[in-house]
Amino acid sequence: MTTQLSPVSWEAEEYITKNHNAWWYVGLFITTIALSALAIFLQGWTFLALIVISVITVLVFSLRPPRKIKYHIDEKGLKEGKILHKYADFRAFGILKEDEHYSAVLIPKQRFGLGVKIYFPEGSGEAIVDQLGNHLPMEEVKLDFLDKIVNFLRI
User: Fold this and answer.
1) Partners of 27 in beta bridges
2) CATH of segment(s) 8-14+67-153
3) Which of 39, 47, 90, 98 lies 20 to 30 Å (CA to CA) from residue 13?
4) Among 138, 8, 15, which residue's Cα sits nearest to residue 75?
5) Half-sphere exposure (CA, 13 Å, Cβ side) for 145?
6) What is the pLDDT along the chain (155 residues), one digit of tens a residue?
7) How far is it, in rounded angstroms, from Cα 153 to Cα 78?
8) Dist CA 118 CA 55 (whole Å)
9) Is the separation of the CB atoms in 95 and 122 below 8 Å?
């Protein structure tokens, strides 16, 4: 049985920015040169194209500041900007704490469905958990392997 709760609204960045010092860029450059040399040696032209596209993508996202997104949770679901995520599409949610940042992770019902990860300020956490918990069960969530790699590489 769900009870009527007040809607919750807040604004947060779409992702957490990581500080990249000069050594991070040097490491990216050296890795790019080494993988490109390997691709050329093995005549893997598709692999070389993948390396170049991947490095350009990493550079664009590391230099681009994150957008501020408006979030709103009510009886209909979670609104992320103009996109509405309905509760019926998710089986559960969980809360993650990465360094000093908090996020809610909505776990999809479909096996290969996309989850939704939203960051929120600590002060709004209780209201957000209450609203999500009113519609979805809460589960323990952990960073998956890909998230750990992204954090390690500070992307």
Assistant:
1) none
2) 2.30.29.30
3) 90
4) 8
5) 0
6) 556 778 899 998 888 777 788 898 999 999 999 999 999 999 999 999 999 999 999 888 888 888 899 999 999 899 998 999 999 999 999 998 887 888 899 999 988 888 888 899 888 889 999 999 999 999 998 877 877 787 777 66
7) 30
8) 26
9) no
